[in-house]
UniProtKB/TrEMBL annotation:
Protein name as annotated: Aspartokinase
Pathway(s) it belongs to: Amino-acid biosynthesis; L-methionine biosynthesis via de novo pathway; L-homoserine from L-aspartate: step 1/3; Amino-acid biosynthesis; L-threonine biosynthesis; L-threonine from L-aspartate: step 1/5; Amino-acid biosynthesis; L-lysine biosynthesis via DAP pathway; (S)-tetrahydrodipicolinate from L-aspartate: step 1/4
GO BP annotations, alphabetical order: diaminopimelate biosynthetic process; lysine biosynthetic process via diaminopimelate; threonine biosynthetic process
Organism: Kouleothrix aurantiaca
Domain of life: Bacteria
Domain Aspartate/glutamate/uridylate kinase: 1-100
Phylogenetic placement of the source organism: Bacteria, Bacillati, Chloroflexota, Chloroflexia, Chloroflexales
InterPro entries documented for this protein: AceGlu_kinase-like_sf, ACT-like_dom_sf, ACT_Aspartokinase, Asp/Glu/Uridylate_kinase, Asp_kinase, Bifunc_Aspkin/hSer_DH
Length: 169
């Protein structure tokens, strides 16, 4: 079946839009519920690119990519697919095809559990705008309980989305 997924309803029955990636996510959920052979998502690009083509004009379409790789790319900045879209298709082992709405001749990208290896360990690079990094270091922290808790408490009070935490002694 062909469905639209951008429109939904609130808990009170009012019609609403689901926001960025809403149609991707609802399509994956419905595809999983129907045990579809494949879920196809149609953005306005030819597929998953090696990087943002606005930043690197020589970016290329990746023909096949794994669920894990696609999940990482989506989580860390690739806008072609909403990060939550991956989970329903992974849980049901359903391949996900990403094809351009405006370029039907292009085969797009196939996202599967184990793609054919192409000999390139790095498939794509993403960017995240407006990212900040905090480094807390020094000998005065060694053996002092609560330093990490106070640091993360201060960060939490501002409300950012923390993407990565690395801690060593």
């Amino acid at each position: 079946p062909v469905i639209t997924g951008f429109i939904g309803a609130t808990e009170h029955g009012a019609t609403t839009t689901l926001g960025r990636g809403g149609s991707d996510y609802s399509g994956a959920i419905i595809g999983a519920a129907l045990d579809a052979d494949e879920v196809a998502i149609y953005p306005d690009v030819d597929g998953v690119m090696t990087t943002d083509p606005r930043l690197a004009p020589d970016a290329r379409v990746i023909p096949t990519i794994s669920f894990a790789e696609m999940g990482e790319l989506a989580y860390f900045g690739a806008k072609v697919l909403h990060p939550r879209t991956i989970r329903p298709v992974v849980e049901h082992g359903i391949p996900l095809r990403i094809r351009n709405t405006f370029n039907a001749a292009h085969t797009g990208t196939l996202v599967v559990s184990e793609p054919v290896a192409n000999g390139r360990p790095i498939k794509a690079v993403t960017t995240i705008q407006s990212m900040s990094m905090i480094t807390v270091e020094g000998r005065g922290m060694i053996g002092v309980p609560g330093v990490a808790a106070r640091t993360f408490g201060a960060v939490a009070s501002v409300g950012p989305n923390v993407l990565l935490i690395s801690q060593a002694s």
